[in-house]
Amino acid sequence: xxxxxxxxxxxxxxxxxxxxxxxxxxxxxxxxxxxxxxxxxxxxxxxxxxxxxxxxxxxxxxxxxxxxxxxxxxxxxxxxxxxxxxxxxxxxxxxxxxxxxxxxxxxxxxxxxxxxxxxxxxxxxxxxxxxxxxxxxxxxxxxxxxxxxxxxxxxxxxxxxxxxxxxxxxxxxxxxxxxxxxxxxxxxxxxxxxxxxxxxxxxxxxxxxxxxxxxxxxxxxxxxxxxxxxxxxxxxxxxxxxxxxxxxxxxxxxxxxxxxxxxxxxxxxxxxxxxxxxxxxxxxxxxxxxxxxxxxxxxxxxxxxxxxxxxxxxxxxxxxxxxx
Amino acid sequence: xxxxxxxxxxxxxxxxxxxxxxxxxxxxxxxxxxxxxxxxxxxxxxxxxxxxxxxxxxxxxxxxxxxxxxxxxxxxxxxxxxxxxxxxxxxxxxxxxxxxxxxxxxxxxxxxxxxxxxxxxxxxxxxxxxxxxxxxxxxxxxxxxxxxxxxxxxxxxxxxxxxxxxxxxxxxxxxxxxxxxxxxxxxxxxxxxxxxxxxxxxxxxxxxxxxxxxxxxxxxxxxxxxxxxxxxxxxxxxxxxxxxxxxxxxxxxxxxxxxxxxxxxxxxxxxxxxxxxxxxxxxxxxxxxxxxxxxxxxxxxxxxxxxxxxxxxxxxxxxxxxxx
Lengths: 324, 324
Description:
The structure is a homodimer of 324-residue chains.
Chain A: E1 9-15, H1 19-31, E2 34-40, H2 44-53, E3 58-60, H3 63-67, E4 72-75, H4 82-89, E5 98-101, H5 107-113, E6 122-123, E7 126-128, E8 149-152, H6 160-172, E9 176-179, H7 182-207, H8 215-220, H9 226-232, H10 237-246, H11 248-271, H12 274-293
Parallel strand pairs in A: 1-2, 1-4, 2-3, 4-5, 5-6, 8-9
Antiparallel strand pairs in A: 7-8
């Protein structure tokens, strides 16, 4: 793997070392995108684990200590904590440093962090649209961002060179970069990420509370479709609590539209309107094709899930006595 | 792979050769579960393709011709067509033959097919809970049913030997077999399969109709969660139209519960009740673990989707002029 001719940044400070933070560290190191990495995490257990995993050159105890001398600071924590962290690190930031984040909501991050950042620091919020259902420093891997999009939402007065340098950092990690307003970001992600998560969390909860169908049955027969939802509904609870609290307006707007559409399909079912159902289901099929065509999902059936082989001994007695 | 010492059935007739029918043929042949396979499909194009693919020993033009001399008949078509097909094949069925299906709704199949089947024929409806988003004879593969559940819903007066023989057939194809009433099946699958599909079809439609967010943005940023839903919403439109028309009561019942739960979470978002959200999201995480533990989904993150490697040439110019 060809590394960069020279690092894009000298010292990267990562505040938060979960799935995203630890993947950034691993990828940045693999690509030679930064000279050194300093990391911190809130709990002593996590800091100890990060030191063991070794993806950072240095692990420090406080956010303020982490940012000292860093020319790139990336805050990788739930969006609800971003304001507090900005306040903590503000006084220690190096002049000319770029401060960014990875939060799934951008409007609130802009509002909460900007007031605490001193003049001469470049603030460029970012959101890599990538992840898995796993959390923590062990969950990260260097390829997480490859072919995924990273959205930058720089404030209007942002320094274009600083924005472009951060874009290059994300491209070095394999991501495609797009720039848009924080407001538009929150609307787009409201439908492509936040609403799907809310719906998945809801339906998994519904299935878990049915008296007539046991949990054991729900698990056993989940391959009928339900299991796909459980992956999303296994995402980090703190992160997602904050997403819904901090992108409330866009989520409620998308939810309103979803409810209208669900009412329409419900009515078609109740009235036995097969044609309306068929037309809707044909239209949605095309969206999948579009996603696969632009490389945002695998063309392999069933996400490429693997299948075990056929049994070698398929009970060769035609009339077994042990009926179940 | 050890084949069966002797086939469980002499001649398998498959009416319908889509994803499920063609997978049954491929698996039954691989396992030596039947001596010969005759298949039919409604359209001449499909019959021609089935002949080319060669997973059946014989391809015939009519349903009536297909079942002649067959001791196992499996109807693999959308549930809305099952009654008509039963009427067509009834007079030609061999005495002692077992007639089954693979429909995702069992109450309507029982009601629609049973009246057309002559005495001396064993009717054992079945539902293998397995599939992918692809359709047609090319989409099938022999491992589709391995470690998945096949639910049998025999009528109360069913011959236990015939039921057990069909169970052995499904076990030979790698499936686990469970028996329950058609009514209970329709309730269980209402939550583990039908409601998830309805929700996925809805949200994918909602995303496609937003003025403020373009379709291109929906596709690009779909890795935030949305893409998972598009797979399910790419399932066969005819099959799923019929599922909702024929399992209307159970689907509407589950939908009612889902709507209650969604209202509750919506209220928590609107009121800023982070604790309620956090508690709900923590509970749903456990369901995922349960599904992975019993082998009904992959423990690999992100369903085991593959990730491309890091770019070899990550744009090594620290200050590029081509800002986007």
